[in-house]
Amino acid sequence: MFEEEKVAATGTEDDTVTAAAEEELVQSAEQAEDTTPKNTEAKEEAAVINEQEAAELAKVKEEKEQLIARFHRLQADFDNYRKRVANEKKDWSTQTVCDVVRELLPVIDNLERALEASGSFEALKEGVELVYRQLLTALGKHGLEKIEACGKEFDPNYHYAIMQVESEQPENTVVEELQKGYKVKDRVVRASMVKVAKAN
């Protein structure tokens, strides 16, 4: 009888252990069910984020390609502009030379006539003076001017002093011009070669 009670007690313990195990399994299942939707939501959220990042990356790549294409177009436009300006500058230079030569052609014609002409020294001198004035007039149309020197204060921008001489004129005054100087507008073509007064 004692053994039967012992068996009955053991059976009760087994039932209790089994019931506890079943309860743990149920709780684990419930927990698993609770976490499964969370895992799914997290995966869906991660998928959405990945899609957004992929879309942003594609957009950035497209903008980069557009910027590179725009840069290449601008570079090509600038190269074309630089070549066009160089060609225009060359054309302007050639046109300027042509304009000056056109003004000088009558001077050349008169010099040829003077070489072919025969006559007195006075007539020849008069012809040369006429050609000289004609030449200055032609170049004057393009802005050529003589630089004033004699009696002016020495200016290193316009005068080239080769010596200083004693003179009654004030110090640093140009007393003699050895070679005429010329300028075109405000740009010196050739400075006047001069002698300058020094202090006594």
* Ends distance: 159 Å
Residue runs with pLDDT of under 50 for 5 or more positions = 1-11
Helical segment count: 2
Number of domains: 2
In short:
By secondary structure, the protein is an alpha+beta fold.
Structural notes for this entry:
The structure is a single chain. With 200 residues, the chain is of the alpha+beta class. The protein folds into two domains: 2-142; 145-200, Head domain of nucleotide exchange factor GrpE (Nucleotide Exchange Factor Grpe, Chain A, domain 2, Roll). 68% of the residues lie in helices and 16% in strands. The chain has two helices and six strands. It has helices at 2-116, 121-140; strands at residues 144-146, 159-166, 174-179, 182-184, 187-190, 192-198. A three-stranded antiparallel sheet has the order 1-4-5. Strands 2-6-3 form a three-stranded mixed sheet, with no helix packed on it. Strand 4 and strand 5 (187-190) form a beta hairpin. Helix 1 (2-116) runs antiparallel to helix 2. It starts with a helix and ends with a strand. The model is unreliable at 1-11 (pLDDT under 50).
List the helices and strands and how they pair.
Elements: H1 2-116, H2 121-140, E1 144-146, E2 159-166, E3 174-179, E4 182-184, E5 187-190, E6 192-198
Parallel strand pairs: 2-6
Antiparallel strand pairs: 1-4, 3-6, 4-5
